[in-house]
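Form 12-C: Joint structure prediction
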Amino acid sequence: MSSLITAAKAGARTRVPRFAEAAVERARLTVVPPRRAIGRTQAARTPFAVLVIAMLVAGVVGLLMFNTNMQQASFKATALQEQVNTLTAKEQSLSMTLDALRSPQRLAVAAKKLGMVPPGQPAFIRLDGGVLGAPAPATSENSVRINPLPTPAPPSLKRKTLVIRVAPQTTSTAGSQADTRGTSTAQTRGGDRKNTTNESDQSGATH
Amino acid sequence: MGLLAIAMLLSLFGARLFQLQGVDSKAYASRAEAAGLVNIALPAKRGQILDRNGTPLAESVAGMMVVADPTRTTPNAEAIAKLLADRLHLDYFDLLGKLTKKNDTTRFVYIARRIPSTLASSTMDELKAHNYVGVDTRPDPLRTYPAGDVAANLIGYLGNDPTKVSGGLERSFNGMLAGKDGKETYEVGGGNRIPLGDNSQVDPVNGKNLTLTIDRDVQWFSQRVLRTAVESAKAQSGAAVVLDSRTGEILALADYPTFDANKPGKAAKDDLGSRALSDVYEPGSVEKVLTTSSLIDAGKVTPRTRFTIPAELPVLDRVIGDWFPHGTIHLTLAGVIARSSNIGTALAATQFAPAELYDHLVKFGLGQRTDVGMPGEARGVLGDRDSWNTLTRAQVAFGQGLSVNALQMATAINTVANGGQLITPSLVVGRATTTSDQEVGTETAKRRQVISADAARKTAEMMEGVTTQDVGTAPGAGIEGYRVAGKTGTAQEVGGACNCYRDGGLDVSFAGFAPADKPRFTVYVVVKHPSDGASGGGTAGPVFRKILNYVLQKYAVPPTDTPPARIPTKWRVHGRG
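Section 2 - Result
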């Protein structure tokens, strides 16, 4: 009886899980099957590695290209800067030429070549036909000297005429030989020579 | 065993690292810099000097300096020297010396400076074509003066060394014109800048432009007319001033002799400045205008006041005479001015105490600098107020015993033209500060009433007589159709062995303005030490007339179409026939 009870008890004990066997079966923890899982990860890793390597390569290549491009741009910048400098220089030298052409002195020289002179006195025509001022034709007297007089030669370069007084009995050819005589007598007649030179300077005599 | 070897090797590396980084780091760093780092100065562009219409009188253009590294040029020194000598017009032997290596330390020599950059770059291209190395260019701004000698006396010039600016406005406004140089540092590889390399840049601050009140054309014309007059009279020097009567702006300030600003080295040192400002002289009879206008202003005389002029007038220990011989004559004040009688002016001036005349002349700006911004302006001499006696008064009344510069005198005369109001003259448009911190320019011009408008008008009417035929001393200075007010001046200069008036030279001058009843321009001309028998009317008068004629026409000033003032210059003593 007791065994029956025990059996019954045991039967009751085993019967309870059997009662919800499917649920228990489901709730029981099991180890994840290893082989299937490994196979799955290996299959996913290959494209990832390829992707990473591709990105790395793309990055390196991109950086290289970027650098090359920048270098190329730097070459271009240098070349363009040179071109700018050349053109600026050209523009400036052209404007220098223009300034030289516009200089009042050059214009005056050109106007003078055409025979123009500044007006002698200002006069104006009014829009209603009236005339203000006293108009008079310009003449050569109104011209203005636009170039300086030639620089006078320094006194040391001026030709000095030496007049030697000779005795009255000398023939007429003596005059043309004055220079030679002057130099030959210069030392012996130093005093005379000085006097005569002064005289000729004052009178401006030449021969 | 293996570990010990590795440790020894590593400690060797460590020692070397310490040597490189700790001990010699600076030396290596500077060597690395020298290898690829370029350090260049970025010169600031110097401001232009413009005339009133914006035409450049001085401008800076891109220039280059040619430099060389003798250690690299030595192999081709002769060929390079020949090429550079041909292209840049330099001395061959001089170049050869520079391009030949003397020692290892000299790696930089100047070949030429301030070469127009087009010329420099074409020369460089040629050198490159021949594969000559070691010559290089650097920016070096070039200063040019397109009009040559026009206004050179005012502008001055820039020598080869930009730190030594010589003379004129280039000097007094150097701070403003020069700007501030910048610099740039960058790494290069194969002649190209390395992107992302070390670089730093300080931008240059370009100089500011200076605009003058000068009209280049009027300045040119004045200089030419003045030169002709000085040459014809065989005079020592001359000056001419053209002022806008209403604003005091200097349209032209001519000096002769002067120089070409592009070739300052060829001129005499004394000709490099402006004598109109730096030289003082006795103004002579032109000064009578100031004396008589002051007398009229004070109500002491009128243009019709009658004077009996004796043949000579003793004052203290001296005897005052006139330039024309005469017995006793009867002139009105207008006649005294028209015929320029010293005795008449001295007689009129007796109505002032000496100090009173002194005060009036101070009001006219004599003895004070005009301060237009030019360096080296002379102040002029008016003497000591308390030391003036009756003789000083008599002499000063007709322009002796005081000295002025040409611009001072022009300003004083302009006061009469501008209705009695003195305007301080200006050379710079707007406002500018000199290196000595002085503010000048049209905006800082000051005005002050010196004589009444009525006194100024009466004086101008008297001055009309000077240019009137058969009345005045300078009928040749008049312009037909216009009312021209003027005054001649012939002053003797103290000089010679006796240091007296007799042996010194003459200074002849002419001052005036037109139209007399509505003045527009004031012109003042002085010719110093003419050697031929010159006079204010005969020598300076025609210069005055030509310049005035030119400005009236250029600025389209029509005649006023009013009848000329005809104030009687003589009077008759009744009862004597």
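Section 3 - Comments
The radius of gyration of chain B is 33 Å. Residues 63-137 of chain B form a domain with the Alpha-Beta Plaits fold (CATH 3.30.70.2110).
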